[in-house]
Amino acid sequence: MAIQRNNERQKSELDSLFENVGLYRKSSDYMGLLNFVKKFPMLAPYNAFLLHVQKPGSVYVETESGWRKYHNRTVKTGARPLVLLKPFGPVKFVYDISDTEGPEDERYNSLLHPFDAKIIEDPGRIWEMTDELRTRIKADGILCTGVATFGSGCAGMIKVEKDDHPSYLSYGKFTIRHKYSIQLNSVCDLGTQVATLLHELGHLYCGHLGSPDTNRWPSRTGLSTNEKEFEAESVSWLICRRMGIRNPSEKYLSMYVENNSTIPNISIDAVLKAVGLIEDRMYHWVSPCKLLVLK
């Protein structure tokens, strides 16, 4: 038990940095970070965060060759590159549009506001993305269902299934141990159901309910209710805004910022990683949790 508690209290190097220098602990600074990350839905949350640390005013970024090939622009002499993490590689270097030269035409103006067109207005597409997410989270032993018996004051909930009578889920060719259940109020509108699903997944992937495999996501069960809710609301708000959905988390976070000068003692690292895990499952097939696969 002592080992488990010590593991839960361990801070990532990123969170240690935030704590030591006070970075993003002010409510306004934290919301500034979230508002920045939401503008870059085509970047992984961590890469969007890295942009904010290096150049908070970034608008649109591309590699030097990308600027030439796709936008007919060149990088200014002496411009400083921004460093992003590269899949299956160390890093790649990109430049903000402010560090480029070229014609200020219609294409240039569209790059200054590149994310307006990313807002999803088609409920059918939102439902399709959510349905794919519901399928892929079975890889983590999660079953999501709609419930019509909840009152109007309950949009949904998540719970850990008991071990005494195990059940199983089908995920492709795999049989997965049913470890977690998410129930959504099916009477609620689509936007509320999506926001609630993301909120409950935020709790899970931030480690609030423990973890079947800490290599998949951490176990962080020792947090206060306030810390857990703030992290889960941050996850839900950020993904919804990157999808183009407004949700109740916006009101929660806005009221908190108005009434508190600093945020709770949360892990920004955990929030960004949880967003990444959920978006991976929203857009890509993921391998099942090996510890939950029926041999």
Classify the helix fraction into a percent range: 40-55%
Side by side, the strands of the main sheet go: 1-4-3
The poorly predicted ranges are: 1-10, 115-119
Q: Structural class, from helix and strand content?
A: alpha+beta
The fraction of residues in strands falls at 5-15%
> How do the helices and strands follow one another from N- to C-terminus?
HHHHEHEEEEHHEEEEEHHHH
Which oligomeric state applies?
single chain
Sheet with most strands? 3 strands, antiparallel
Radius of gyration: 20 Å
Q: What is the average per-residue confidence, as pLDDT, rounded to a whole number?
A: 86
> What is the number of E strands?
10
Give the termini separation: 28 Å
| SS field, number of helical segments | 11
Backbone shape: globular
What is the strand and helix layout of this fold?
Layout: H1 2-9, H2 13-21, H3 27-37, H4 45-54, E1 61-62, H5 64-71, E2 74-75, E3 82-86, E4 89-96, E5 100-101, H6 106-112, H7 123-136, E6 142-147, E7 156-160, E8 168-171, E9 174-177, E10 180-185, H8 190-205, H9 225-243, H10 249-259, H11 268-283
Parallel strand pairs: 6-10
Antiparallel strand pairs: 1-4, 2-5, 3-4, 7-10, 8-9
Helix pairs in contact: 7-11, 8-9, 8-11, 9-10, 9-11
